[in-house]
Amino acid sequence: MSFSGLRERDVRRVAEAVEYVRTTGTREALDAVLPGLDLVRHLEFVHGALLVVAPDVDAAVAELVRLGVRPRDPVPSVVVRDRLAQRLGREDLDVRIVHAVVGGGPRELELFVLCGDFPDVPGDEEHLAFRASTDDEVVLRGLYEHLADAGLMPDGGGYNKHEDVTVLYLRGARRMELTVPGHRETLLRRHLGRPDQARRDLLTLMSGAWRTRSLAVVAELGVPDLLADGPRTTADLARTTGVRADNLGRVLRYLAALGVFAPTRDGWALTATGSLLRGDVEGSQRDLARLYGGLFYRSFGALEHTVRTGESAFTEVFGADPFDHFAAHPADARLFESAMAAGTSFLKIVPTVLDLPAEGVVVDVAGGDGHLLGYVLTGAPGLRGVLFDRPHVMDSARAVLSRFGCADRVSLAPGDFFRDPVPSGGAVYLLSRILHDWDDERCTTILSGIRAAAAPGATLVVVERPVPETHLEELPLAWDVHMMVNNVHGRERTPTEYRALLAANGFHLDEIRPLPLDMAVLVATAV
Ligand SMILES: C[S@@+](CC[C@H](N)C(=O)[O-])C[C@H]1O[C@@H](n2cnc3c(N)ncnc32)[C@H](O)[C@@H]1O
């Protein structure tokens, strides 16, 4: 204990805080909240705050006087007291606030004093306070969005009617208090979110399956195609599709709330999102919606089985792994192929990010229905192609490559990359959306088969959706779970994992080029 009755540690903290407030300007204080926060034109550092424990408030005031600052009369705290009461599980707390002008001012120290005998209280109340230098609503909103974009997290706040200021707390490297003049309801709503936000978010997440099914049903019924020429009524849509108007209308209304349709005076129109569900548009997602809300919806029902046993949910539900299932069920195979094609809008861009040779052979390993090969060959008339995949996809591939007008430059090579040799002599090997279907052992078989077929210096182009190493990104992580459910041993990988897998099989990863929708082209060379 010091002579004032404060603990040595608190005496030191108060002295350090006084010194900090005395010597720190706005730019430096902003930097302490978040390095690089360059807002000196709009914000002014007005006080630093900390919480100490003292036998009574007079002891804290005495300590401040001893440090040469000028304390004002203490006032009771309500907000901090309530927060501490909750944290310490005690109702009978006495918390005072002492404001003290430091140096010549105008900056102050704000000292919260928890009176009594308490163990150390964590320093959550510490913050640096800034005042906005404008009361222009638009500038304030812009300022707030800038702070949010910079990564500061909302951490409480409210309207202080005694001082007629709105106080917002944000958390960066240090906690920040932002004071703006007046009662800013819109800003507060933005800052605090709805009071029921967490439950609302969770309900939205939990009802995700309903969205998946609703999308699949309207895609299956062809509703988006029926709206291609303009809005139609529910009754009209129900009559044309042969379903019940009341029930269809309710599904359409739900999807309208999700932005898929737009309500018109007496019916429904397509939004840009909904238009992608038409079957006849470039980049149509219709069959993807049918697949995710159909076959793969059923397999996702066995996710728990996969988590418990490590086995494929798809196999559990359908009795065979997906590729064997498709080989035995032509209708499902057609849907899968056209859904894969629906997900290929980004494949069109692949040739534009590649340095393709003027002539030679491009071998598309497990090339599916040939869309990627079609795009590659269309832009490179000197190249020839080989499409290697299981026998049952050859008919679709022939049809697709004919539509691309390059069937005469492609030889179809039916085969199985686990049993048959990969066609040799390619200058470029394509491996699009294949490695994520398999575990490292099977990827090794596939890659070593390609390496055996490729001459040193040949290019291997891997198209995947890599998992970022530095942060959580929804799409790659959703697809990672999807691969776990719908493939025997599928997984998405990080760039580091791809690099290692390629290196272990005779390829050097040269470059990763980004594609839309978090996809990427990994360009490697056979060494
Ligand atoms: C996800 S699709 C990707 C198709 C295409 N590369 C693309 O990106 O659109 C996976 C492909 O791997 C093929 N495949 C699965 N097992 C195979 C095997 N053992 N040998 C050859 N191809 C196989 C499937 O027939 C299917 O066309």
UniProtKB/TrEMBL annotation:
GO terms for biological process: methylation. Residues 301-507 form the O-methyltransferase C-terminal domain. Residues 204-277 form the O-methyltransferase dimerisation domain. The keyword S-adenosyl-L-methionine applies. PANTHER family: O-METHYLTRANSFERASE CICE, PUTATIVE (AFU_ORTHOLOGUE AFUA_4G14580)-RELATED. Gene3D superfamilies: 1.10.287.1350, Vaccinia Virus protein VP39, Winged helix-like DNA-binding domain superfamily/Winged helix DNA-binding domain. Keywords: Methyltransferase, S-adenosyl-L-methionine, Transferase. One of its GO terms (molecular function) is O-methyltransferase activity. This is O-methyltransferase. Pfam families: Dimerisation (PF08100), Methyltransf_2 (PF00891). The keyword S-adenosyl-L-methionine applies. InterPro entries: COMT-like, COMT_C, COMT_dimerisation, SAM-dependent_MTases_sf, WH-like_DNA-bd_sf, WH_DNA-bd_sf. PROSITE patterns: SAM_OMT_II.
